[in-house]
Specification:
heterodimer, A: about 250 residues, alpha/beta, Rossmann fold, 6-stranded mixed sheet, 4-stranded antiparallel sheet, about 30% strand, globular, B: about 250 residues, 6-stranded parallel sheet, about 20% helix, about 45% strand
Chain lengths: ~250, ~250
């Protein structure tokens, strides 16, 4: 589903990704772990198309399309979801309005009929319930006044509503307490664990992987994937640390 | 006999005006006031969309009686010089509410010029102005507040925010406070900034095209100006008029 080949990227002319190659087929949840500064967030931002991240070499193919040729909103319509490490507050815009406009923009780009207000609210209620989020929160302004944990939970509600084929989740577990971690993990499983979907799960810690059992685990260090293995690789990292495992 | 003469930029209240447009309007076209008297204890709300392809100057002189209330809400989206001027005089305990939006690109100047006179004690006024501009468009707010010597317990507020969608556009805010009483509250604030790029990327990552993302952000930005307008239909009309002007703006 996602093929990254020899990807090189710079931020403010500083090389961060230095020949990253990774393949994630449909049906797979692939965890990316790595030390600070390895390029994990750069990888997610490059995949999402954030301005300021320049690809200098390599390619990214998503469902047969050249992902890097698409604008961020076109990537979303093509089925990519980027879960933000730091979800952005948008004062003056309600979650309901934002998500309905976003979903209908994606549907329009795919040649589908827009959802009516009633249909959308029904869908939003169902997905919010999955993440144990009160509908009242969805009527509030996007992420404004949300705690760190609520923001991450709201990200997952967004993912549920937008129903992407592929999710890149950048440290979705940061800022979550143990209960919220379980809820978010269960949400990822419910929304994305399917034969025709896939996830790139960027994380620092094993604890999210206890809930969302990954099929594969890769270590990103120095801008490249240096090792790929099964779930046991994450357990080894947790027990021994990056230095020992990568030595 | 008095001869009407054109104002010049030496007049404080006209310092950012488009003098060429004023010349096209002529002195007689400018020296024209609409008078609104709001009797004691009564209330008036006016909503207006100003602006066309030719210069416009709207001048209103509003007098509020004791305990009266006047609320004005204006979308100023002129394609040419468009000035909305309010001269307001408040009696004891009266309230004046103003929400204004200037929006537009091109080369035009749109402006709000207010003079709020707290002539007696315990009157309140609140002004919220938002300016959204692009190309070499300009938005001005010249807000003068005068508090008379015995107008104690006056509470006057001015809040201006400008959003410039590209370099070349400008927003000017000139608060002018003349306070002769000592027990008063007069708050004023002015900021000018660009669109929140992090918010724009976040919205695009969720599937909104650049124009829709910008429209939502601008809608949220200017919404403050009409918060105090209770009639939802009128509020939608003013917002829609402003957002229609955004079509074709720099993304």
């Amino acid at each position: 589903m996602l093929e990254i080949t020899n990807l090189h990227a710079t931020v403010a002319d500083k090389p961060i990704l230095k020949g990253l190659t990774l393949s994630v087929p449909a049906g797979e949840i692939h965890a990316i772990m790595g030390p600070n500064g390895a390029g994990k967030s750069t990888l997610s931002n490059v995949l999402g198309g954030k301005p300021g991240y320049e690809v200098t070499e390599g390619s990214v193919t998503f469902r047969g399309q050249d992902l890097l040729a698409l604008d961020p909103h076109e990537r979303a319509a093509a089925g990519l979801f980027l879960g933000f490490q730091y979800p952005v507050e948008i004062p003056g815009v309600s979650n309901v309005q934002f998500l309905r406009e976003a979903l209908n923009a994606q549907r329009k780009a795919r040649g589908e009929e827009p959802l009516s207000g009633g249909e959308f609210l029904k869908l939003a209620k169902e997905k919010a319930g999955l993440l144990k989020m009160d509908m009242e929160m969805l009527k509030r302004q996007v992420n404004v006044g949300f705690s760190g944990g609520e923001k991450k939970r709201a990200e997952m509600v967004q993912m549920g509503i937008l129903d992407p084929a592929f999710a890149v989740l950048d440290e979705t577990d940061s800022g979550l307490d143990i209960d919220a971690l379980r809820i978010v993990g269960a949400g990822i499983n419910a929304i994305m664990r399917a034969p025709d979907k896939a996830v790139l799960l960027i994380t620092h810690y094993q604890r999210l992987l206890d809930v969302v059992a990954p099929d594969k685990v890769s270590i990103l260090a120095g801008g490249r994937i240096v090792e790929t293995g099964g779930p046991e690789l994450a357990l080894r990292l947790e027990a021994e640390g990056y230095d020992a495992v990568m030595a | 006999m008095t001869l009407a003469t054109l104002p010049t930029r030496h007049d404080e209240a006209w310092r950012y005006a488009d003098v060429d447009a004023l010349a096209r309007l002529g002195a007689d076209g400018i020296d024209h006031w609409q008078t609104i008297d709001v009797p004691a204890g009564t209330s008036v709300t006016r909503c207006m969309t100003a602006g066309s392809d030719t210069p416009e100057v709207h001048r209103l002189r509003v007098t509020l009686g004791e305990g009266a209330r006047a609320a004005f809400f204006v979308t100023n989206r002129g394609g040419d010089y468009t000035r909305v001027e309010l001269e307001v005089r408040l009696a004891k305990g009266a309230h004046f509410e103003f929400g204004g939006v200037t929006i537009g690109g091109g080369m035009a100047t749109r402006e709000f010029v207010t003079q709020v006179i707290h002539a007696e004690p315990e009157a309140t006024s609140n002004q919220t102005i938002r300016a959204v501009h692009w190309n070499t468009g300009t938005g001005n707010f010249l807000g003068e507040i005068k508090v008379a010597r015995h107008a104690q317990k006056t509470d006057a507020a001015q809040d201006f925010k400008g959003l410039l969608l590209e370099a070349g556009a400008s927003a000017n805010a000139v608060p002018q406070l003349e306070i002769f009483a000592d027990d008063v509250k007069c708050a004023h604030g002015a900021t000018v900034g660009a669109l929140d790029e992090a918010a724009r990327f976040y919205m695009m990552a969720r599937g909104l095209d650049p124009a829709t993302a910008q429209r939502l952000l601008v809608q949220a930005f200017i919404g403050d100006a009409f918060v105090a307008l209770e009639d939802e239909g009128e509020r939608e009309t003013l917002l829609a008029a402003a957002l229609a002007a955004l079509e074709g703006a720099k993304l």
